[in-house]
Amino acid sequence: MNEEHVARNSDTSSTPPSWQPQAVSRPREDGNQVEQALADVRSKIYPRSVSGIYARWRIAMVFITQIVFYGLPWLQWNGRQAVLFDLGARKFYLFGAVLWPQDVIYLAVLLVLSALALFLFTAVAGRLFCGYACPQTVYTEIFMWVERHIEGDRGARIRLDEQPWNARKIRLKAAKHFVWVVLALWTGFTFIGYFAPIRALGADLISLSLGPWQWFWMLFYAFATWGNAGFMRESVCKYMCPYARFQSVMVDNDTFVVTYDDVRGEPRGGRSRRIDHKEAGMGDCVDCTLCVQVCPTGIDIREGLQYMCIGCGACVDACDQVMDKMGYEPGLIRYTSGRAIKERLSQAQVRKRLLRPRIIIYTVLLAGIAIALLVSMLTRTTLRVDVMRDRGALGREVAGGFIENVYRLQVINTDEAPLQLRIGAEGLPGMQIIVADQQGETVQVEGSANLLVPIVVRTPMAGLSPGLYDMDLTFIAESASGRNTAVTEQSSFYVPQ
């Protein structure tokens, strides 16, 4: 890393930072904090590139998340797209599973699991998701990599923006935005590829024959990606993301967060490497402000944990490099807890405090619900039957002294293999069942399809009194092709006056 220093803060006796997340205000001499806040919103942040262990983790997470996002729609399973949320057909394909609207309970359970995971991970290590896997962070990192590759690092970008427009500036800006737009359009195309077969979608895109809604959502998502990752960046994290606002209720004194060790670092100030700063009464912080320059949200971590901090660890990498050059112990800024700073605990002592009651409760709940969901998914039947009475004729008397009721069976085969079903009924004496438009009592239901089967049930009138025989009739649908599949559904039988 190049040693680039900015003006140092002359006040080295500042109050030690508070640990709780807070919004940091920097009032101007005239006290107009509102005007200063608006200026902060309008000002552009130029994050400096940084290398280190946490930078490598961020790069790895960018590759992992984008390989999954861009690659998943192209995977095939049983001759179809492996992951497809077909809203038109109201089917969700997840590898070997086919989910129908009736499976909405699984979506509810997934939302509960996501909430519990959010509580657990935040209580353990703060905003790790924001710093490493959030789409806003990931795409901002990608767009910033393109920007640095074309325009240069922090200083070069500042100089380029400040200089008047000329041929070189136009060329660099045009090249950057061209790459950004291509990435954004590919992202929008991939996004709608989760809701329509992506291979057919690609052919339609090449021939410019996409439907109006497909064009709309591809361009809308591309525009959102280009705007959020290219321009808004930290503003999304600081002013739009609700997670930043309520994280303070999910962290405590034992949560691992990016923390500046003010006890060790203060009083801060510039110095030569040849002096003994301890004898000079100075802390380890050399006030180089590199921790601020590499921060993607532009905060100063030395002022305490703030809600704008996304926990990316860029300041940790930058500070450790400065400590190494100065010959000081690394970890002036590190992942640790507020209690560790106050009570001067070692990292081993901090880790021992991770298993506190709330963490155990979150873990047990998360594991229990996840196991229950997995068992339910693995053991669920692939056949569903809904019984609907014919409301046009509740019951009627027919020749031969029989009472006849008409039903419609909505048969859903969630498996991808065809299913031969035998339809039967029981519960009333001497009853007969007629499967309309079928030969015998079997029906063929294609894979991942549903079938509406009209059923006529007749029973001798002798011995039956008029009225509704509630839940006395049981329909049975079982596999006639050797598969261990059977479903029973109850209904009522009506005897007219």
Automatic annotation (TrEMBL):
Residues 1-31 are annotated as: Disordered. The chain crosses the membrane at residues 57-77, 104-125, 178-195, 215-232, 359-379. Signal peptide: none annotated. PROSITE patterns: 4FE4S_FER_1, 4FE4S_FER_2. Residues 276-304, 309-331 form the 4Fe-4S ferredoxin-type domain. Pfam families: Fer4_18, Fer4_5, FixG_C. Residues 9-23 have a biased composition (Polar residues). Keywords: 4Fe-4S, Electron transport, Iron, Iron-sulfur, Membrane, Metal-binding, Transmembrane, Transmembrane helix, Transport. The keyword Nucleus does not apply. The keyword DNA-binding does not apply. This is Cytochrome c oxidase accessory protein CcoG. It comes from Mesopusillimonas faecipullorum.
